[in-house]
Amino acid sequence: MEPSVSGGPRGPGRERWIDEAAGPVVRPYAMTRGRTRPRGEPLDLVTILVAIGRAPAEPGRLTREQRRILWLCRRPHTIADLASDLDLPFGVLRVLAGDLLDSGLVGIQRWTSPAAQTDQNLLRRVLDELRAL
Questions:
Q1: Which of 58, 99, 103, 133 sits in a 20 to 30 Å window from 43, CA-based?
Q2: Multiple choice CATH, 33-128, 1.10.3470, 2.40.110, 1.25.40, 1.10.10
Q3: Contacts of 49 (CB under 8 A, 6+ apart)
Q4: Which domain of life is it from (predicted)?
């Protein structure tokens, strides 16, 4: 028999799925049930999620990771920050967050850039002045 990663015996039916330094090993596809993309709206690195405050219809159906996402999203978080804080691959976090979004437990916080708030009259005056040159 070969020693396992954690030093114990390994053989048929005796594989250990833990690493002493890393803790339990769970494959990303197991967390997302084999999915690689969220079902709904595409989520990118800078998408800002915020918990809506609704209680889940069936709290037992949420994974541990989804409960952690909800807890962190009490304050707005980007997908990139959530992936980093939870030490999850971006693709996994995107799928889990997409499920929470679909169920109405989190929402996307939209922000407008200062350029979107620019006064149209100011732009027209600048354009007029440029044409006058």
A1: 58
A2: 1.10.10
A3: 69, 73, 76, 77, 78, 79, 82, 97, 100, 101, 106, 107, 108, 109
A4: Bacteria
Spell out the long-range contacts of 18-27 with Cβ–Cβ below 8 A and sequence spacing 24 or more.
none
Annotated domain spans of the chain: 1-31, 33-128
Q: Which of 46, 38, 53, 41 is nearest to 106 (CA)?
A: 53
3-state SS string for 12-58 = CCCCCCEECCCEECCCHHHHCCCCCCCCCCCCCCCCEEEECCCCCCC
Query: For residue 73, what is the DSSP state?
Result: T
d(CA 32, CA 34): 5
The residue written with tokens 């996402």 in the block is: 69
Residue reference for tokens 């992936």 = 83
pLDDT value of residue 20: 56
What CA–CA distance (Å, rounded) separates 73 from 108?
10
